[in-house]
Amino acid sequence: VLSVVGGDVAAPAVSLLNGRYVMWAAHGDGATWTHATAWSYDGLQWFDFTDELASSVTYDPLRPPRIGLDADATGAWRVEGESAGLQASQVASGFTYIQGDLGFSFRLANGFELGAGVSGATSNRGISPGSWVEIGGVPTLFATTWSISERPYIAVLQDTGDGTLEAEVEDVFAPGTLGNDAGVESPTVFHDGSQWVMLLGGRNAADVVRIHRATSPDGLVWTMKGLEVVPVSDSWDSVEQQPRSVVQTSSGFRLYYGGFD
Question: Which residues contact 234 (CB under 8 A, 6 or more apart)?
Fold first, then answer.
């Protein structure tokens, strides 16, 4: 539904806001990533793809940064103006950013909420947020973590009551489970009827990622269904399919995912 001429777009996060769909996505130019926004009336046709915040993380086409957990103590965020000089300024902790055209604002946190190792040995090389949901009244984060060997895992972290997140489950799917030959990543979680559903990227022995489905009665113990959910639609997603965001529609649910060739 969205592509960029001469660049990459990845890691979409979509929500319905003020009567319009808003998408946050990572925009890559081959050397850097920038967090960008777009909007849509129907969630299919998108307008005004605009760079918002530049990221200072090292560019990696297979690891686009997701909005919300991409900052560090040195102030990794910065805002780039539209003047001829493109005057960049550091954005300090607590800075409130207002996006008037889309009708929302957000406040930047200090970047210390989570650190490597929060999920034990499975997160020694880092953590990336997936889905943020409430399970049994407890704010819960489903995240991709990477071990020292670079194998991706899926962890479940829950709010302890004071805003601190602790790992409730460090490794949701045991290695070798259906679709998990070389790791699992990009958990996208939503509630459907009496069960929780997770769409995730399963990395097979050939290092190809396909979208799989798992279900859970409580959001903590999950059963992998094993079937590949999304057929390969074109060359653009032949190597990787990464589920990123699910929104409810009048006819069911709509999945937004990123592809890589």
Answer: 259
SS3 123: helix
Band of pLDDT at residue 215, cut at 50, 70 and 90: very high
Of 42, 40, 41, 51, give the one whose Cα is nearest residue 4: 51
**DSSP 8-state secondary structure symbol assigned to residue 50:** E
Rounded distance, CA 80 to CA 52, Å?
8
d(CA 220, CA 157): 10
Taking the C-alpha atoms of residue 230 and residue 29, their distance in angstroms, rounded to an integer, is: 27
Rounded Cα–Cα distance for residues 141 and 66 (Å):
14
- Nearest CA to 170 among 221, 130, 119? 119
17-62 pLDDT, tens digit per residue, is 777 888 888 898 888 888 888 888 888 899 988 888 777 777 888 8
d(CA 145, CA 151) in angstroms, rounded, equals: 8
Query: 3-class DSSP state for residue 38?
Result: strand
pLDDT tens sequence across 109-155: 544 456 667 888 888 887 888 888 889 989 888 989 888 888 999 99
A 10 A CB-CB count for 153 gives 25
